[in-house]
Amino acid sequence: MNMSRSFAHIIVATVVTILLIVACFQVPGDWNWSGVWEYRQKFISGWFMTLGLSLAALVLSVAIGLIVALCLAARNPLVEATGRIYVELIRGTPLLVQLLLGFYVVANAVGLENRFVVGTLVLAAFSGAYMAEIFRGGLNAIPKTQRDSARAIGLTRWQSFRLVVLPQAVRLVLPAIAGQLVSLIKDSSLLSVIAISELTLNAQEVNSFTYSTLESYVPLAIGYLLLTLPLSATARWLEASFRYER
Amino acid sequence: MRLTIQDLTQTFGTTRVLDKLSLETGSVHALVLVGPSGGGKSTLLRILAGLDTPTSGTVTFDDTVLQPDEASLRLYRRSVGTVFQSYNLFPHLSARENLILPLVHVHGLSREEALSRVEEPLKRFHLYEHASKRPAELSGGQNQRIAILRAIIVKPKRLFLDEPTSALDPEMTAEVLDMIESLKESGTDFVLVTHAMNFARRVADEIAFIGDGKALAHGPANMLFESPENPRVATFFEQVLR
């Protein structure tokens, strides 16, 4: 059957939506949508807060990932060990614990009181550790002959990294980076534990204000999809633009 | 160019790839290194090209000794060109961008100057219509010719070519060998590692036979091919020219 890819996507998405709607009708009791509508402003402000936090954490985490990946590849054992311990500490502990310790212990110790700044920093540090391993894999995948060739034409180590290795590595790691960024946006829901009024916290509050249980989670899911789907689409477009294989 | 190598040794772990290799050429435009695989030809070429530093020994080109520190070697590499067996073009850049990269980032030309400098050579070597393609869209022969152009576009003092045709089929090999021959006619000095013996004989001013990490014989091409004194060299030529 000759069917375009985007048409197939629309068909599958429609079927899944219908199944979800049917499932909703199976839930006993009435759905109270008027309460959700009444507090729509709360969803909108929460969505923008999530968007802002995620964007800031996203940019920071890419920078952290790249710097830590370079540390992991460093010849100096102290620099390499610093990068390695950072990655293992962050990846080995839950984000929830990092947020609580980061906000109540570390930020308190250094006198940082702004919960938005702390939340963004912890989220970026968490995602940055995963990014670092993704970048490290990408950098290692570039054949040694490419660095050789860069040296042969007289490029410095930095030029070789910037002009030859990095552009090829970015192309390789784009799908994994996009996946990590989607996770970062969803992980931002945990910032509710340090009372940042992002989308999830606001949705939970709407549930309590309206004495409802499940209604708020529907706009909540849609809100996250509105952030993650364009990101995935952009990543696919970038991947296609950077493609240089035959 | 005049090349003098004294007691050049290169070891990797416990393997001694070059073993006190010494060689002194006359004033030549084309020096060709031949010999069995694993004999040390490519290792020697990498040292001559400034890509590796030897464990010990010295290399002198025209009375200038190659200094082993990285800063001196980088300056040296900017003044010479190197072509690899597997082309090693940058796959994310078009053929034209591969050519202008060293001109802009190493030799300080503006992008416009670099673009105008590459036009004529691209036409001369029949690569102009392929200039916007990336390496994956080009044939092996076209890739290798672009790689050679990238090495000569910066007007190097001399060129090092490491088995530039060994990854190519016969038709593409002919394309590349023609290009190397035309370089010789234009007066470019080069050191070539090759297994193409007939070509070596035709193009070389001097041939050095490298085996067991030493220069077992060297001299003018005809002399070496027709009356090799070293029995190891004689056996090798007997086998490959059969």
Characterization of this structure:
The complex is a heterodimer of chains A (246) and B (242). With 246 residues, chain A is mostly helical. Helices cover 79% and strands 0% of the residues of chain A. Chain A has a single domain (50-241), classed as MetI-like (MetI-like fold). Chain A has helices at 5-26, 33-38, 40-72, 77-91, 95-110, 115-141, 144-152, 157-187, 199-209, 217-241. The longest helix of chain B has 16 residues, at 170-185. In chain B, the strands form 2 sheets. A 6-stranded mixed beta sheet of chain B has the order 6-7-8-3-9-10, with helices on both faces. A 4-stranded antiparallel beta sheet of chain B has the order 2-1-4-5, covered by helices on one side. Chain B is of the alpha/beta class and 242 residues long. In chain B, 39% of the residues lie in helices and 24% in strands. Chain B has a single domain, classed as P-loop containing nucleotide triphosphate hydrolases (Rossmann fold). Chain B has helices spanning 41-48, 70-79, 95-105, 111-124, 140-152, 170-185, 197-203, 221-226, 231-240, and strands spanning 3-12, 15-24, 30-34, 56-61, 64-65, 80-83, 158-162, 189-193, 206-211, 214-219. Classes of the chains: A mainly alpha (246), B alpha/beta (242). Chains A and B meet through helix 7 and helix 8 of A and helix 2 and helix 3 of B.
Q: What name is given to the CATH topology of chain A?
A: MetI-like fold
- Count of separate DSSP helical elements of chain A: 10
CATH architecture of chain A: Orthogonal Bundle
Helix/strand/pairing category of chain B: alpha/beta
**What is the structural class of chain A?**
mainly alpha
Count the beta strands of chain B.
Answer: 10
Multimerization state: heterodimer
Give the helix level of chain B as a range of percent.
25-40%
Strand content of chain B: 15-25%
How would you name the CATH homologous superfamily of chain B?
A: P-loop containing nucleotide triphosphate hydrolases
Number of domains of chain B: 1
SSE series of chain A: HHHHHHHHHH
CATH class division of chain B: Alpha Beta
Distance between the termini of chain B: 32 Å
Q: The biggest beta sheet of chain A, please?
A: none
